[in-house]
Amino acid sequence: MTHFPGRPINIPESEKDSGVKHYGFAQKAETNIMSDNYYDWKEYVCGLGAAFINISVTFPINKLIFRQMLHGVGVSNAAGQLSSEGFYYLYRGMLPPLCQKSLSLSIMFGVYEECRRPLENAGVSHYLSKTIAAMVAGTVEASLMPFERVQTLLQHQHYHTHFRNTFDAFKVLGFSYGIKEYYRGLVPILLRNGPSNVFFFFLRDEAKLHLPHYDSWWGQASQQFVSGALIGAFISTVFYPLNVVKVHVQSTIGGEFQSCMSALNELYKTRGLRDMYKGVHMNYTRAFISWGVINAAYEFLKKCLA
Q1: What residues have CB less than 8 Å from 187, skipping those under 6 apart?
Q2: Which of 141, 246, 278, 284 has the smallest number of CB atoms closer than 10 Å to its CB?
Q3: CA 132, CA 112: separation in Å to the nearest integer?
């Protein structure tokens, strides 16, 4: 959201040497600092809540897409795999994305605003400050990638008998393979997070400026859902190949770390460009629903906390 620095306060000449102390100005400045801190707190909480709502709704779709990414198969084949495994395994691996996405969105919105507003107040141009803040938020989000790493392994049918649950997967990876194993696939995540955040915040703010405004809560919620859904579907499609590379790299445990370019070349040679986009239809459908829910829930929670 756009933030404009306050107007400069000019003290009249008659008051400069009058001995009058401007307590009102000091009090107002202190109030602004407190409200800014409160605003930052709201950003973190709203991101957390929006992510929790979203993951609870979209996890089964996400798991279906994961199987298509991993094996390069169609929807019916991936759905058949999940159906044969039963309902017990359908929500297996939900805890890592629930924790990761909740913290990730909290960081995404909170860190973005904490970086952007001081930059704009310091005189940095509006668009540059948004770009820097979005890239910083995306980089900080990458610190949560151990959750993505464990989620990948828990959703892979090859590892159903290797790990009992999320905590067991974290323990085995850490103790048996070392901390470094948590960060296998870091480069594609960094290449995805920062630029995708830049796209999201730019497009979201432009949508707010140019789309019509509605007075009814239903009209506002619908607009927030649709704009978030379209932006999310577009971004997820643009960055889909990086997610395929990430899944490919993270589907193995131990051994030499494969570089991002090496994995991309291998996938291109074995699958071809068309099969690298297997699952993209389900992916943008999931992203449409997911980011629509996130955007609408985020704005709703902000109003509740206002």
Answers
A1: 259, 260
A2: 284
A3: 9
Report the C-alpha gap between 284 and 238 in whole angstroms: 10
The pair of structure tokens assigned to 283 is 């992916």
pLDDT digits (tens, 9 = 90+) for 117-147: 999 999 999 999 999 999 999 999 999 999 8
pTM of the complete model: 0.75
Query: Which residues are CB-contacts of 180 (< 8 A; sequence separation ≥ 6)?
Result: none
In the chain, what percentage of residues exceed pLDDT 70?
87
SS3 255: coil
What is the H or E stretch that residue 232 is in? helix 217-238
User: For 192, phi and psi rounded to 5 degrees?
Assistant: -85, -45
What is the Cα–Cα distance from 196 to 173, expressed in whole angstroms?
29
Asked if 112 contacts 134 with a C-beta cutoff of 8 angstroms, the reply is yes
Token pair for 130: 């948004």
Q: With 60 as the cut, is the pLDDT of residue 3 above it?
A: no
